[in-house]
Amino acid sequence: MPAQSSPEIKALVVCLGNICRSPMGEAVLKDIAQKRGIEIVVDSAGTAGYHVGEEPDERTVAVCKKHNVPIDSHARQVSTSDFVRFTHILASDESNLRNLERIKPSNATAEVRLWGSYLDNKPIPDPYYGGINGFEKVYEQCVRLSNAFLDEVTRTSTQTS
Ligand code: 4NP
């Protein structure tokens, strides 16, 4: 079976506020999967609720626009049902990974990992208090991590099907 047939993958990208890193990660992962012909569901959420309902940070939107990556999301907080609805939960950094592990329900089925663990174990640094350059770096990292994640999950689904 070709690696493209992977509709079983449902990934949730998680950061703190769900306005900077994870909406960009969601947009980039969707865009790259579509370009690679991989069927996947992607969403994003924050471990904190400070920005619930807000659109992504204008710097996240500007960087996505510059790279022609469509972005359209509103911030929401992670819920316990996400641990069952998604197959993979991708934490942007260790602090968010710890928070996810803390709220993970006993019936969780999702694999909860640092997104960087699919490539180099590096966290995605929080760009909120810095300039646009930090957002550009987050974008480049999201591209690398999206490809690494898709490489691994398509390899796994091909082996097991
Ligand atoms: P994010 O960035 O977790 O990448 O969405 C942040 C957004 C907001 C805050 C911190 C980080 N905040 O403190 O409000």
Automatic annotation (TrEMBL):
It catalyses: O-phospho-L-tyrosyl-[protein] + H2O = L-tyrosyl-[protein] + phosphate. It is found in: Cytoplasm. The active site is at residues 15, 21, 126. One of its GO terms (cellular component) is cytoplasm. GO terms for molecular function: protein tyrosine phosphatase activity. Keywords: Cytoplasm, Hydrolase, Protein phosphatase. Residues 9-152 form the Phosphotyrosine protein phosphatase I domain. Belongs to the low molecular weight phosphotyrosine protein phosphatase family. This is Phosphotyrosine protein phosphatase I domain-containing protein.
